[in-house]
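REVIEWER CHECKLIST
Item 1: Sequence provided? yes
Item 2: Single chain? yes
Item 3: Sequence as submitted:
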Amino acid sequence: LIMSSKASLSGAEPQKLGRAFVKNYYQFMSQRPAEVFRFYMDDSVFTEQSCLSPDSMDVVPPARTYTAPEGVTTAVRNLEFTKCVTKLLSLDVLPVNSFNFHIMVVACRTSAGGESKNFAQSFLLVKKNESYYVQNSIFRWLPASAAKTVVAKKKVVKKKKPAAKPAPTPEPEPEPEPEPEPEPEPE
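Item 4: Structure as written out by the authors:
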């Protein structure tokens, strides 16, 4: 099992646990890929699919699904993360209930030879006893433009407020016309 926790997930805790999990997971994928199975249990499912080709968006390549720790180890080896550096571009952690949570990662994997490849991966972390494991994970390679778009959408763009228009200068009120002088009364 991947990490221990004696508390249920609440408040900022999911973010903290999610960040710790992701850091640990990608270190294993790079340095000890044969041991990534430790993050999974017998009921775990790992799905991997190549990115869609921009030329044929209507043709979806088939996904490959792996089960149990042994199948996941095979899948991870096929992804070729050994001795790679993973740079997170986006990380979202969402509690599913008071004990489990969902993590969504968009990142860039750079090989020792300098080749960079963007990917997205989601994880459903489930609490078992006092630890968490990956019950489900979906992995997708992305075209370079897709990861940039995801990151751009997450940035908060502050728009400048338009300058306040000066209040219109009130036109002076017309001066009242003088009242006619009364005519003298006849004597």
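Item 5: Key structural point noted by reviewer: Confidence is low (pLDDT under 50) at residues 5-11.
Item 6: Recommendation: ____
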